[in-house]
Description:
- By secondary structure, the chain is of the alpha/beta class.
- The protein folds into 2 domains: 1-185, Jelly Rolls (Sandwich), CATH 2.60.120; 188-399, 3-Layer(aba) Sandwich (Rossmann fold), CATH 3.40.50.1110.
- It contains 7 helices and 19 strands.
- β17 (255-258), α4 (272-289) and β18 form a beta-alpha-beta unit.
- The radius of gyration is 21 Å and the shape is globular.
- It starts with 26 loop residues before the first strand and ends in a 43-residue tail after the last helix.
Amino acid sequence: MVSDMFRTPMPLIPLLAALPAYAVEPMKFDFGGRGTTAGFTAVTEADVYTPEKGYGFDPGFAPRSEDRGGDPVKGDFVTGDGGFYFSVALPPGNYDVTVLLGDLAGKSGTTVKAESRRLMLENVVTGDGQQVSRKFTVNIRQPDYPGGRVGLKDREKGYLHWDEKLTLEFNGPRPCVAALDITPAPSATTVYLLGDSTVTDQPFEPWNSWGQMFPRFFKAGVAISNNAESGESLGSSLSARRVAKVVAEMRKGDYVFIQFGHNDMKRKEADALQVFEVGLSKLVKELQTKGAIPVLVTSMERKAGVNKDTLAGYPDAVKRVAENEKATLIDLHAMSRELYVGLGENLDAAFQDGTHHNNFGSYEIARCVVEGVRKSKLPLAAMLADDVKPFDPSKPDSAADFKYPASPVKNMTKPDGN
């Protein structure tokens, strides 16, 4: 069925990035080559994004319009091959996004990603003449926060997840997008992620992380704010004020998932492990004091870690902190080894190099983390998507059967921390 949301006019206001998210009025866009109805902004394939206009398709990724006649909102849509991007200037915050997908005279298959390839909707299929509406909640952010600014690396400064707009990627075998509704979601639960290259939103194919697959597994009303970055350790994330940004913006009842170890273990000081453990314990206590819910995640193994441990004592240190501070623990270190053994001769199909995963590998790692959430006693478990099923890491999905549309942006440069 098509949501009534796409029939109820709502006024648009100028898009002012300086406004707080809650001050932004709902926005409604009607895609296609024909006119629209009251309350919608008509968007044709020729509408390229400019800062002055505040919305449009990203240059170089314009789709094409198709029109089936009839209803001005449902009858026309945009589609394309290989993925295309639509951006809207917005202030930081959480937003409910509802998309109307499908073709009144054909089939469609649409995957939606947000910002830097963050998976929101996976392969939404419609039959001949069908349209469906799907809703998800997305977090967008900027480096500034109350009292400071994140110290971005030069490499990060052009990334979609740090700019002043929301960018949606529409991809799949035949993406068909008829309409889009964006509404501030100030009451959404935010799940913050802190970590390294195996957690961050990797901006380019073929690299991927579990953090950017994570949003797909939650219902609308949960927003994933991925503050991890390649090459980061706990210490460097503190120094760059990534942790401070999370602490400044989180609210009581929000979650903070923390996964460090890969880069921390590279420190050569004799007391490096002790410093890591003390620092992690201090952070957990601070989060708990402020009413947030920390979730500690032991680092997944490297490809060489199937039969031997490559992470020294760092997973055990995370476990000790979780036990001492009574924080929820997800033992991804153990689950990843089960996963790698289960993959057997297909282990290479999950990795891009010895540390970093590709789309398939990160999807499987994300399923491990989601399984940890599902088994926990956290209220967050009740917010998992309805189609989330139990996952046994020792029985992974088939790499050959994994169908996932690659984004049209590629860079073979290895992430920091390799």
